[in-house]
Specification:
The longest helix is centred in the C-terminal third of the chain and has 25 residues. It is globular, with a radius of gyration of 20 Å. Helix 1 packs antiparallel against helix 2 and helix 3 crosses helix 4. The protein is 50% helix and 17% strand. Strand 1 and strand 2 form a beta hairpin. The chain is of the alpha+beta class.
Length: 267
Amino acid sequence: METTQQISAKSGGDHIVKSVARTCQTLVYFDEVRRPLSVVEVSKELGYPQSSTSALLKSLVKLGFLTHDARKKSYFPTERVPLLGSWMNPDLFGEGTIHRLLKKISERTQHVVVLATKNGDEAEYVQVILPKDSPIHHISLGTRRPLGNSGVGRVLMSRFSDDEVRSLFRKINAYRAPDKPAVDVKAFVASLAETRAKGYYLSTDQVVQGSGLISMPFPNHLSSRLFAVGVGAPTDVILRSEAEIVGIMREEIVRNLKKMDQQSLTS
């Protein structure tokens, strides 16, 4: 899921139906704020006319995706919204083992924890645990990062063969926007050997100045998709606490995956 700003930026093109984009933006905005919203709040945040916003929210109520509190003049998602994708992977998208794993890592490190997957030519955050007092504010559910210039991107690509990596980045370079720098494919492939050997990658000041991320691959057997776990913090904190954070991540992954394996054997 992308942020409302990301969807808004894409919805200006004629390749996306406006009503579909607005519906998705509205549901994503509810996911971001996680509280009841009024017509005025949705209209102001997403830049829709109030009349259009009111009609959209009323339609979502009739379709069963929102509930309306007439007294408070507010709207809120119904249980139908989270149930839409709950069948796909309960451990990943519900309150299952993977969610508890990410939460435990966050509790022990006191830092932001993300779960990322490859989505097209980018890495996308599909789970984000954000501590209340975290100084990291640029990470949210649906955030996307370039595969060639981010920690999670590098870790995800380390799961592919060198030939597959070369092929993908040649395509990315060929179709990149004019203002996007090309990936040095030869250097990138050569550097993957160290990432694979260490089992994790530490990136600092790559996407956001002053911020760092320690990323490591998530075991393959849990899903047909590839995932990476990342812990984010200010650059100085990441550099100072590298060994401690890596140790916690590895401990919790091993501990929680053992529980998952045991549950699958007894079910």
